[in-house]
Amino acid sequence: MPGTPPTRFVYLGPEGTFSEQALRTVPAAEHGTRTPARSVPEALDAVRSGEADAALVPLENSIGGAVGVTLDELAEGEPLVITREVILPVDFVLGARPGTTLASVRSVAAHPQASTQCRQWLRTYLPDAVVVDVLSNGAAATGAATGAYDAAICAPIGATRHRLAVLADKLGDHPDAVTRFALVSRPGPPPPPTGDDVTSLAVYIAHDRVGALLSVLMELAVRGVNLTRIESRPTGEALGRYVFVLDCTGHVADVRLGEALQGLRRVCADVRFLGSYPRHRWATPTAGDRPVPAPAGLSDSDYADAAAWLARLRRGE
């Protein structure tokens, strides 16, 4: 039923990963079922088929960039919409069986992205250890727990789940690294506007039209809609054919964003709405958490005033 909170969640597994840790920040997920999936497509297909109400999947990492498979699935697969974003600090820890000392570690299990982001720490503190690639942060924690490896670079939830002792934390070479996740559901009414929202779109431009991408950007810019991210993905049709995945400030219910969407509909080959949802809010607010105000003349009240003025002109008043 529309408006019914989700109770069946799926996430990119396995257990003990940052994806599970991110999902557990969603209040409804703490009271529902949480099922790991083997891949992003598998997680999203569970939502499409009705086996799950919502899926949490990674969108982008501040170090590694966009997660291409997620963008491709949202842009090309059977339609789904984002209802919430979660931004999670990437805080890697070194976990090992209790009693293990840092000096005794000779082998470290790590997902390749994890070891890459902790390269400097490994070079400084475990220069002689052999780093073994595994399929996930969860698999790394499992390997350390079973004794297959002396230690693991993993998520804090992985160390806790496998009862590993944390020999060191904050291993990342980039202490401010974060991963952005999307909670995705079947199409339905978006969450109500909060005044600080994000709208995501997949835009297909007309490739035979000069300045087609510029036209897209102008539809947003002239209405004061802030474009916060743009990512191109190949459509698979032919070399040089791309779909552009956009994030912009505002909500589909806002007048200025609604007019921008109508403009995009007119100038683009196709536009897929990927959702309007609240911008992630940190537990400890910072200056960057404050919503960006509408430019002068482009607030909803300004649009309403201009529309009323035009109506009076048309009535001859």
Q: Gist?
A:
The protein is α/β, with parallel strands linked by helices and 317 residues long. It is built from eleven helices and 15 strands. The strands form three sheets. Strands 1, 2, 3, 4, 5 and 11 form a six-stranded mixed sheet that branches. A five-stranded mixed sheet has the order 8-7-9-6-10. The protein has a four-stranded antiparallel sheet with strand order 13-14-12-15, with helices on both faces.
Key terms for this structure?
single chain, 317 residues, alpha/beta, five-stranded mixed sheet, 30% helix, elongated
Can you walk through the features of this model?
The termini are far apart. The radius of gyration is 23 Å and the shape is elongated. A hairpin with a 7-residue loop joins β13 and β14. With 317 residues, it is of the alpha/beta class. Strands 1, 2, 3, 4, 5 and 11 form a six-stranded mixed beta sheet that branches. A five-stranded mixed beta sheet has the order 8-7-9-6-10. It is 30% helix and 29% strand. The longest helix is centred in the C-terminal third of the chain and has 15 residues.
